[in-house]
Design goal:
Layout: E1 4-17, E2 21-28, E3 33-38, E4 57-63, E5 69-78, H1 81-85, H2 88-104, H3 111-126, H4 131-145, E6 166-168, E7 173-175, H5 189-200, H6 203-207, H7 211-229
Parallel strand pairs: 3-5
Antiparallel strand pairs: 1-2, 1-4, 2-3, 4-5, 6-7
């Protein structure tokens, strides 16, 4: 028998359905990923249309359907969409975040991934850090939760204590010279320190980093993410990395 249920959820993406409805894909706190129909939300008189836009966090009530559930109520918990959308760097970063969350979580979801995404979107909306730093930190942590934690100090292959400078995406991070493939790219200490800070959430160290280290770190993170997801993130090419003030 169909039933009602409630959960907290962050909206990942939406698609139009018919003339007035919308399919909403959400990552929830307790029910994994949910694809549900929000009826009539594209009408101007809709009570909860604005609460079901990407980057928004809501307390939703749903009716269990045969193929898609039906959203019957939505109360805002985190209205991050407007602030994020008003800044291009934040908007493009958030777009990558929700696409990544969609790819690294299966239908069962992950409480850790949910909490990480909500925290990252909240930080973006408040402009707590530069959007590019927030994005790179989110991506490194999301991959770590998914089981692909990179090593930025000890050798990812042998475990030999670092520091090491050769970084090989396919091997999981920095590697000792004895196992580094010929021509492996080398990262300087400042870049490795920044990557480690972003993974650990050491924002004082991350904020004090130089432009060159941030640029190189962003390239490393992008390569690492796309290798482990085994496909490109369509939204990543649009990210604004130009300003690091």
């Amino acid at each position: 028998m169909p039933k009602l249920y409630r959960d907290e959820a962050v909206v990942l993406r939406t698609h139009k359905l018919g003339e007035a409805d919308r399919i909403v894909t959400m990552l929830s706190r307790s029910h994994g990923k949910i694809r549900a129909v929000a009826k009539g939300v594209r009408r101007t008189a809709s009570k909860f249309g604005a609460r079901l836009e990407p980057f928004m966090v809501a307390d939703v009530q749903l009716y269990e359907g045969r193929t898609l559930d039906i959203i019957t109520q939505a109360e805002s918990l985190g209205s991050y969409g407007a602030e994020i959308a008003s800044d291009y760097a934040s908007y493009t970063a958030a777009t990558v975040m929700v696409e990544t969350a969609d790819k690294v979580t299966d239908d069962d979801g992950s409480l850790q991934q949910y909490l990480l995404l909500v925290g990252a979107l909240r930080s973006l909306s408040r402009a707590e850090h530069h959007a590019s730093l927030t994005l790179d930190s989110y991506l490194l942590r999301a991959l770590s939760i998914a089981g692909w934690a990179p090593s930025f100090v000890d050798c990812a292959v042998t475990g030999a204590p670092g520091p090491h400078t050769a970084f090989v995406v396919q091997l999981g991070g920095v590697v000792a010279d004895t196992v580094a493939p010929p021509g492996a790219p080398r990262l300087d200490r400042a870049t490795l320190d920044l990557l480690a800070s972003l993974l650990a959430g050491d924002w004082d160290a991350a904020e004090s980093s130089e432009e060159r280290a941030r640029s190189q770190a962003s390239g490393v993170v992008a390569a690492y993410v796309q290798f482990h997801l085994e496909r490109s993130l369509r939204s990543l090419q649009h990210v604004d990395r130009t300003v690091h003030s």
